[in-house]
């Protein structure tokens, strides 16, 4: 009960969990949780908010040393996934950066074309297979 709520840590670890798709991602999250359990201090909330709103332009060296590697892995996960989940940075955190907004618009247009043509091909191929 005497331990403070680590708001910044919780935001960061939740963001990492949302981006985790590989086994090593979850292992890194577990290691971060262990590190935070043994650490007395929380991450700086302003730095975590900045990281979540604009991860591609964030400098990992601005976070204390034991956490730098986890910040770098978070940035890697964002780049690997190609996007930041909409609910990651708060209200409009993912829309704050113009390039990600432009990519989303292009993806919506591209995916709309692909999804409309892809089901037609699949449907026609299924019909031809049934006949």
Offer a few descriptive terms.
mainly alpha, globular
General description of the model:
With 131 residues, this protein is an all-alpha fold. The chain has a domain of 84 residues. The chain has 5 helices and no strands. It is globular and about 35 Å long.
Layout of helices and strands:
Layout: H1 7-19, H2 23-38, H3 45-53, H4 65-81, H5 98-130
Assembly classification: single chain
The percent of residues in helical segments reads 55-70%
Largest sheet: none
Shape: globular
C-alpha-based Rg, rounded: 19 Å
Number of DSSP helices? 5
Total strand segments: 0
Structural class: mainly alpha
* Secondary-structure element pattern, one letter each: HHHHH
User: How much of the residues is beta strand, in percent?
Assistant: under 5%
Overall average residue pLDDT: 73
Low-pLDDT stretches are: 90-125
Tell me the span between the first and last alpha carbons: 68 Å
In summary, what is this structure?
This protein has 131 residues and is an all-alpha fold.
